[in-house]
Specification:
Layout (H helix, E strand, L loop, with lengths): L7 H23 L4 H21 L1 H38 L9 H9 L8 E7 L2 H6 L4 E7 L10 E4 L2 E9 L3 E5 L6 E6 L5 E6 L5 E6 L13 E4 L11 E12 L2 E8 L8 E5 L2
């Protein structure tokens, strides 16, 4: 049968505990014998709180700050890269060895003026398949031209910091760029001596365009390393822009010589482009 009230012994133990507690409290009040114990307990409590705070809350804060700092650095790097690419485009556009304008005085003024605003649009890469570019005849890319107006950019020339890469052939949400190496693309070029002209065709290979001529008609001999420039004919590309150098000279037959010209510009060197109408 269970007890419903404490026994005499249990009551005695309870009283003894009360007396012991009162005695300890009295000693603590009348003397500082337990001060070192209390200080030790407070010190342990503070140390434990600091340790737990360091391995939990502070670590979470640190990770959050590092994440924010990393995002900030990434955004800053992207902004700096875009500004650097823009400066490269500007430098290429107004370089003395290039002529994007008919009036040479414009070039001279632009090179000296700090307030010069180049008359070209900025475009950003939106779609490009490097596998098709490296294997097939169709070499295209899609760019978004940054413009406030709904302009038609068809037949606008496209260039990057290394030179001309092609022309826009279709404008919709994004503009389709026909690259120089596409087999359907032709560009009128000339020799550095201005006495040899050719309509160079895309080879379907990266960096290479093809120029064919009849050696019985052309008196000038073209050798490897010869530099070719845009002729200004055709109305798409301005005159005297370096296109590339002859990489190979191949005699197909007695009436046909084929020149492989390695382009100066690489379309995948940057994702920022200039778009300009000649």
């Amino acid at each position: 049968m269970a007890r419903i009230s404490p026994t005499r012994g249990q009551k005695l133990i309870f009283v003894l505990y009360i007396l012991l507690g009162v005695g300890i409290l009295y000693l603590d009040i009348t003397s500082n014998n337990f001060q070192s114990v209390k200080n030790g307990f407070k010190s342990f409590k503070i140390s434990t709180y600091y340790f737990l705070n360091q391995i939990t809350i502070e670590q979470i804060k640190h990770l959050s700050e590092r994440s924010k700092s990393k995002k900030f650095l990434i955004n800053e790097n992207e902004m700096l890269k875009e500004a650097l690419d823009l400066s490269y485009l500007n430098n290429y556009l107004i370089a003395k060895e290039n002529n994007f304008y008919k009036d040479y005085e414009i070039i001279k003024y632009a090179a000296k003026s700090n307030n010069y605003q180049p008359s070209y649009k900025i475009a950003q890469l939106r779609s490009f398949d490097p596998n098709i570019f490296n294997c097939c005849d169709r070499h295209r890319m899609f760019v978004e031209v940054i413009s406030d107006n709904n302009e038609n950019f068809n037949e606008f020339m496209v260039f990057n910091a290394s030179g001309i890469i092609g022309q826009i052939i279709h404008t919709n949400k994004y503009s389709e760029v026909l690259l120089l190496t596409d087999i359907s693309h032709y560009i009128p070029i000339k020799s550095s001596t201005n006495d040899f002209f050719c309509n160079a065709q895309g080879s379907g290979r990266s960096e290479i365009i093809i120029c064919k001529y009849n050696p019985l008609v052309e008196s000038q001999e073209i050798i490897a390393g010869h530099i070719f420039y845009t002729s200004g004919l055709g109305g798409i590309y301005p005159k005297d822009i370096e296109i590339g150098k002859v990489d190979k000279v191949m005699k197909i037959d007695s009436t046909t010589v084929e020149l492989e010209i390695k382009l100066s510009a690489n379309p995948i060197a940057s994702d920022l482009f200039g778009v300009i109408q000649y």
